[in-house]
Each structure stands twice: as structure tokens, then as C-alpha cells.
Design a protein that fits this description.
Blueprint (H helix, E strand, L loop, with lengths): L2 E5 L3 E3 L4 E8 L8 E6 L6 E6 L5 E3 L7 E6 L4 E6 L8 E9 L11 E4 L3 E6 L1
Parallel strand pairs: 2-11
Antiparallel strand pairs: 1-3, 3-8, 4-5, 4-9, 5-6, 7-8, 9-10, 9-11
Length: 124
């Protein structure tokens, strides 16, 4: 049974930083083909950053220069470092796995497995 467990969400002030983690269980973790998404109240789930099947990273425009995706094979864990946080970054952040090759990395419909999410709240 595939299980993705996110952690690291918190309440911070604008300009602050957070590092989210996503530990993977029951899945052939390879450090590739995984992604981070977020969903704010009343909005659709949107892609933040992702790695394709050969490890190439794609960032959403709003994430470029502020967010960084990485992973640790020894811990079966995906990370999202978020710096210079803004109130608009407030959302539930999810990690995803299990994308069919060729499907867009930053589209939610591309991914099969999801974590339960971790709440990030940024105050001004």
C-alpha cells in the first residue's frame, strides 16, 4: 500500500522560511517522478514543483527563485524548501507520486498517489 506522509507545515510571518518533507512508504521510491502541489481555500490544486522520470525539475512561475525541491534516496523522502514566503503562499501542500511518463508534471490529473497534506499559513 502506497503511503505519502507530509510534514513541516506551520504558521509563519511573511518573509519567513519552511521546509516541507514527504516520506514515502510502500512505493518503489527512486527519487524521481514526484511532485509538490498546493491548494488554497476555494481554488484548484496547483503544481508547485516536480521531478520527472529522469530527475529534471520543473517549477511553477510563482515558485522560481523562492522554492527548491530536493530528495534523499537514503530516507525515501522528498523535500520542498520555501523561502521568502508570502501570504499568497497560504495553502495545504501535498506531495504526489505515480505519474505516467509523458503526462505534465505540474498537472494534478497526472498523478496517482497523494499524501494527506500539510497546512502552511503565512501572515503579513
Amino acid at each position: 500500500q502506497v503511503q505519502l506522509v507530509e510534514s513541516g507545515g506551520d504558521s509563519v510571518q511573511a518573509g519567513g522560511s519552511l521546509r516541507l518533507s514527504c516520506e514515502v512508504f510502500g512505493y518503489a521510491y527512486s527519487g524521481t517522478n514526484m511532485a509538490w502541489f498546493r491548494q488554497a481555500p476555494g481554488k484548484e490544486r496547483e503544481g508547485v514543483a516536480g521531478l520527472n522520470s529522469v530527475g529534471i525539475i520543473t517549477y511553477a512561475d510563482f515558485a522560481k527563485g523562492r522554492f527548491s525541491i530536493s530528495q534523499d534516496n537514503t530516507k525515501n523522502t522528498l523535500y520542498l524548501q520555501m523561502d521568502s514566503l508570502e501570504p499568497n503562499d497560504t495553502a495545504i501542500y501535498y506531495c504526489a507520486a505515480g505519474r505516467a511518463v509523458g503526462n505534465p508534471v505540474l498537472k494534478a490529473r497526472s498523478w496517482r498517489f497523494w499524501g494527506q497534506g500539510t497546512q502552511v499559513t503565512v501572515s503579513s
